[in-house]
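How a chain folds remains the central question behind the approach discussed here. For one protein, we set the task of working out the structure tokens from the amino acid sequence alone. The sequence in question and its structure tokens are set out directly beneath this paragraph.

_____
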Amino acid sequence: MEDIRSCIHQVPIFQVLPGDRVLRLQRAMHHRRLEPGEVLVRAGEPVEFLVVVAAGLLKLARVSGSGREQVVRELGPGRFFGEMALFTPLEAEGDLVAVTTTDACLLPREAVAQELRAAPGSALRLVEALARRLAEAERTIGDLALLDVGQRLALELWRFARADGGRRDTFELPYPWAELAARLATTPESLSRRLRALADEGIVRVHGRTVTILDADALYEKSL
């Protein structure tokens, strides 16, 4: 594994910490490499660490009694899990699982809390991050309540194409289509049918995980 001490600097809540405090966090940090499908934290377990993704992709997923999976959150490089537990003891709401080969930094909960208590500016950045998470959760709840599967798929593809304020006609899906199905609260078979319909209408072209938007206006209209 390459030196991933910089993963601390990828997280906005730590960017205002003085150098000596960053060094203390680095000394307290543990590194884990996870292979696809490996579980880092299981549902119901106490959250003892702030988990920072240095490289790769993690998902927080719930599994129903029937075996159906719902992806609650996804965490790419620089994203983190366990921040709520810095304020109060919590148990994981789902399984935290590696989607791809993932390098993660594990920072003990008490070590992070101690530095935040000594640096109020970082605590404010953490509150801002929590506010963004709540906004994302509300958006997801709204999508599930108001849109059917076809609309959710079209909207998600539109968001990928417009990620970070850009406008990409072609992009690579960062995870398997089955993962996207779970994220959209549907089955891979249902997602495949909707995706094939978009392709048949000449709106998108799909090759593996590569998606090309052929008619951006029509795609957006499908999400309404």
Summary: The chain is about 40% helix and 25% strand. The two ends are 45 Å apart (CA to CA).
